[in-house]
Amino acid sequence: MDKDIPEEFLHNTGNYYSAPCLIGHWQERLATVESTGRNIKEKQKRGTLKIQKLRNLMTSLLQPEKLAMDTPLITFGAHYQLKNTDVPLYHDSVICHGLYASVTVDKARLGFSQDFWESCTPTAAPYNRPCVRNTITIVSSDPRYDRSGLQVVYEECICIQFTSHNGGKYYLHYDSSPMSGGSQSISLKTEIGPYSIFRIRCLEKNKEKTPIPIDSKVILVHMASNKMIAIDKSWVDTFYGPERFMSCRSGYDARRKLISDCVWTIVGHPKHDVSIIYRACLGENIPEELLDY
Q1: Is 161 a residue whose pLDDT tops 90?
Q2: Which CATH class, in words, describes the domain spanning 67-290?
């Protein structure tokens, strides 16, 4: 008989609960299960379940974006990607051909917002299709002037902007002041300030004030600290898979040689190669990254 009665209903002295007490417990448990089911159905109708919020958030941040096309030079206001191809890209579960500056969401804020927010973390991600979370816009460091369509030149003060699917504007920000705690991590801010201004520097000498060709390898220097945007060594798990954090560092090793973590390529829409599509139609095994667009 002991086996037929749930253990949680046994009294500490070994005496059994009375039949009316057991019935009360069962009815209470049944009412709790039914109430939980009704709450879940109501939240599902309102779209407030965490799984629904996560699905909507991932969908909104992966909405496709169009990169700048047929523009040999970098211009203000156009859409680009920041790509790093010079760092080791091997990971247990990732095979990638470059890391792209992106924005990843904070799990703690998932229930409060379905968009970017200031506590979102910039990362370098292997996901290469142009979308909301990995597409940037180069804008003027002075918000009073709209320089859209004008060419960007080396050593010019610029801001790097991410735009959410709702049109919100967020800028890469690095606070190097002692009040920030000395952190090297990069964050997002909704307003342009002295710690959101960068310069695009060429790897070659004597290129100051010259237009920047698309797909050029550059370094991004933070004006206030003179440090460079770099990729951290370790991988972290995010909603979108393994990625790397971005930070600001000196950019040089002990021998004063520029490290590859700080070298970026400003990427626009690639030109279509009709021959690759023709070769794929004939059955040739074309690498996936060549057919992404």
Answers
A1: yes
A2: mainly beta
